[in-house]
Design a protein that fits this description.
InterPro entries: Cyt_P450, Cyt_P450_sf. It comes from Tilletia controversa. The protein has a single domain, classed as Cytochrome p450. It is about 45% helix and about 15% strand. It is built from eleven helices and eleven strands. The chain has a four-stranded antiparallel beta sheet with strand order 6-10-1-11. A three-stranded antiparallel beta sheet has the order 7-8-9, with no helix packed on it. The protein starts with a strand and ends with a strand.
Length: about 350
């Protein structure tokens, strides 16, 4: 039998790659083995952003809201101070700081330099600039990390085996058509297993909403959940909804919002998740590790009219609103030239 390796695809890939990318784009000094004097580790930055993403946008599980609120109240001020300090230094002592920080975690990337320069040129109040930066970081961090993890888990389920085989073939091709189809599998996977289950809203007046063949009477002050996850399984909008079709028109999806609540990074998210899936499913004979470590352990709760929200159990059996670990195995004995691995900490099994 060949040799195999293990990788925690959530801890080491999906919860890290998007955060490292964000840090580079926004000029946040990361603490890594290569830059040990940075301000925050990728995990610390993730735990600042994710509670903000969930609590400010999709707080559907009432019993988890107090944890999210506490985490958001702890992380937001730290992030605000960090970004404000970076902006102020960039605006006042840029030539000196560029020289002093070269080659360190504090060096400003060209992308962050353009961002800072453009924001400061607007002459808007500092608090407003910082809020705008955090507001654009939150949805990218929240969607790219959690949703990619859910997609990997989905396509490793036995009922989706035929789609996994197709994804593996696409992952090992480098043409435009293959990548576009892979991106289609991202949107179809999000339709089946989305990170955003619905949008919580509160009615400002009495009204009647037509919902399919029924009418829903809503009173002012009543809490609603707009079930986007249910809408994506509606056979009227998606014929044969249980079948995955990566060639469906993108305009059919409302996965990333609609109208004034449309995610500004929608096109980026699909492309970025497809890029991560491409590298992950290149791993030879990718499969779940044996036992609990190779699956998500979830507690489900009906939050509204059949919309099931999930809390994930970590290694200490704590209930968390996001997955923290998923250990997979892959064959590691083919020649190195035939194996393309995403950057990760791999351990011999």
């Amino acid at each position: 039998s060949g040799k195999s390796s293990q990788i925690d695809i959530v801890r080491d890939i999906t919860n890290v790659v998007p955060i490292v990318w964000l840090a580079q784009k926004y000029g946040i000094p990361l603490k890594t083995p290569e830059t040990p004097h940075g301000l925050v580790s990728p995990t610390e930055l993730l735990m600042m952003l994710l509670p903000l993403f969930i609590y400010t946008s999709f707080p559907l599980v009432e019993k988890a809201n107090w944890q999210l609120r506490e985490a958001a109240n702890q992380g937001a001020p730290m992030l605000q101070r960090l970004l404000e300090a970076r902006l102020r230094v960039h605006g006042g002592l840029k030539p000196l700081t560029d020289w002093l920080t070269k080659g360190t975690a504090y060096e400003i990337s060209p992308d962050a330099d353009r961002l800072y320069t453009g924001l400061l040129a607007s002459k808007r109040p500092m608090a407003e600039l910082v809020t705008a930066m955090i507001g654009t970081m939150i949805p990218v961090a929240g969607n790219l990390t959690q949703q990619t993890a859910l997609l990997v888990d989905l396509y490793l389920q036995p009922k989706y085996e035929e789609y996994k085989k197709r994804i593996i073939k696409l992952a090992n091709r480098d043409d435009k058509e293959a990548f576009e189809e892979l991106e289609g599998f991202v949107y179809e996977g999000m339709r089946i297993q989305p990170v955003v289950l619905g949008l919580p809203r509160r009615a400002t007046r009495d009204l009647v909403i037509k919902d399919g063949d029924r009418q829903v009477h809503v009173k002012a002050g009543q809490r609603l959940v707009i079930g986007t996850s249910k809408a994506h399984l509606d056979p009227k909008a998606f014929p044969d909804p249980e079948k995955l079709n990566p060639h469906r028109p993108l305009k059919d999806y409302i996965l990333l919002g609609k109208g004034i609540h449309f995610c500004f990074g929608a096109r980026l998210l699909g492309f970025a998740m497809a890029a991560m899936l491409k590298e992950i499913f290149k791993l030879p004979n990718l499969r779940r590790a044996a036992g609990r470590q190779g699956s998500f352990v979830k507690v489900s709760e009906n939050v509204a009219d059949g919309i099931m929200s999930h809390l994930f159990l970590d290694s200490y059996s704590r209930e968390l609103p996001l997955p923290t670990s998923l250990v997979l195995e892959f064959d590691s004995d083919p020649p190195a030239s035939k194996v393309t691995r995403a950057p990760a900490r791999a351990t011999r099994a």
